[in-house]
Design a protein that fits this description.
- There is one protein chain.
- This protein is about 35% helix and about 15% strand.
- The longest helix is centred in the C-terminal third of the chain and has 21 residues.
- The chain binds pyridoxal-5'-phosphate.
- The site of pyridoxal-5'-phosphate has 12 residues, from α3.
- Belongs to the class-V pyridoxal-phosphate-dependent aminotransferase family. SerC subfamily.
């Protein structure tokens, strides 16, 4: 296949459209430059790093308008580690999980493998749709994903009716949603994410906004596990009470990547200065609308998620006709420097997947759609 060269004037200014890791803005790299001699290579137990952690915690509290008593807690290991924190430190007996894609399936698998928990009750639906757990007797924790990154589906976040009376917690995987999709934190008990998606940082960290009920639950589970004869082992790395204690001191249990913290702090500052979550989510809405609108009017593409209300404004998935192999489109775009628009491998569709997080300029998203058309016409 001959190389297709997209005219320079058509190319997006920034050519990164990954669904995580995602675009890191030049201003974040400048912040890293400034930190290079004063922060990088210094102790995370001393003021310069603790001040950054404190600034991130305050910045996120403001960004998400967290209710009184909620706390911003963080630790190492990313959202994947937090799934196991939920199993070790939050679920008392049994969880109910919404399962509708690779990421929402993974926490269910973690719960399933915890020997001290009852098998989870699954509420499953086909990829491209979502399924919220229903109130279930005996369940003490409800889990689902606000944005299922593998399929580009967005699900609502609310307290399941009757769950509060049950004393049950609502745990939301917001890894690709946080910072891109509106949320009312009061509807959640653990709203958790990694910083390499909408927050344009590096991976390796988890952040979780915890309600007073979640904090109390973690303390209760720890007390129960320390009783003689109790069957539960809480590995120190997965101890939420330990993460809470450390976070209150603006620290983490073990050494964090300082680059991740510096990039994240700069992004939170930028988002707050521009108008916070309402601004960020409106921007993502605008970018995602550009792609959905383009796909709906394209002769060879269509949005994968058929229900418009379930279409993610953070990660956009677009099916292509079989006559237009996505692999060839992706390769031609990559030849021109446009990267990371592949569909989720395990979903196995002839698909493009485009991350439209706040860092991405809507004008670049528009340019991307023209570049896709340009390439497809010449394949
Ligand atoms: C990316 C992602 C994860 C995994 O995040 P890691 O930082 O790699 O652990 C989990 N859940 C969702 C919804 C994601 O998009």
């Amino acid at each position: 296949m001959d190389t297709i060269t997209i005219p320079q004037s058509m190319l997006p200014e920034d050519t990164r459209f990954g669904s995580g890791p995602s675009k890191i803005r030049p201003e974040q790299i400048e912040a890293l430059d400034r930190a290079a001699l004063t922060v990088l290579g210094t102790s995370h137990r001393q003021a310069p790093v603790k001040d950054i952690v404190g600034s991130i915690r305050e910045g996120l509290a403001s960004f998400f308008s967290i209710p009184d008593g909620y706390e911003v807690v963080l630790g190492n290991g990313g959202a994947s580690a937090f799934w196991d924190v939920i199993c070790a430190s939050l679920i008392t007996r049994q969880a109910a999980c919404g399962v509708y894609g690779s990421f929402s399936a993974k926490i269910a698998a973690s719960v399933e493998s915890a020997p001290f928990l009852e098998p989870p009750i699954l509420f499953e639906s086909e990829p491209g749709t979502y399924c919220i757990p229903e109130r279930t007797e005996y369940v003490d924790t409800y889990c689902w994903a606000q944005s299922e990154t593998s399929t580009g589906v967005q699900a609502p976040v609310y307290r399941i009716e009757g769950s509060r009376e049950q004393g049950a917690l609502i745990c939301i995987d917001a890894t690709s949603a946080a910072g891109a999709i509106p949320v009312d934190i009061a509807q959640t008990d653990a709203y958790y994410f990694s910083p390499q998606k909408a927050f344009g940082s590096e991976g390796g960290l988890w952040i979780s906004i915890l309600s007073p009920a979640a904090i109390e639950r973690a303390e209760g589970v720890r007390r129960g596990a320390s009783l003689e004869g109790a069957r539960r082992w809480i590995p120190p790395f997965l101890s939420l009470t330990s993460a809470i204690d450390n976070s209150r001191k603006n620290q983490t249990l073990n050494t964090p990547a300082l680059v991740t913290l510096v990039l994240l702090d700069e992004q939170v500052r930028w988002l707050n200065e521009n108008g916070g979550l309402p601004w960020a989510s409106a921007r993502c809405r605008r970018s995602s609308d550009i792609v959905y609108h383009w796909a709906e009017h394209s002769s060879y593409a269509r949005p994968f998620v058929t229900d418009p209300a379930a279409r993610s404004q953070a990660v956009v998935t677009v099916d292509l006709d079989e006559s237009v192999p996505a692999a060839n489109v992706i390769a031609a775009l990559r030849d021109n420097g446009i990267v990371d628009v592949s569909g989720y491998r395990k979903l196995g569709r002839n698909q493009l997947r485009i991350g439209v997080f706040p860092s991405v300029e809507p004008s670049d998203v528009e340019a991307l759609t023209h570049c896709i058309d340009y390439v497809v016409e010449r394949l």
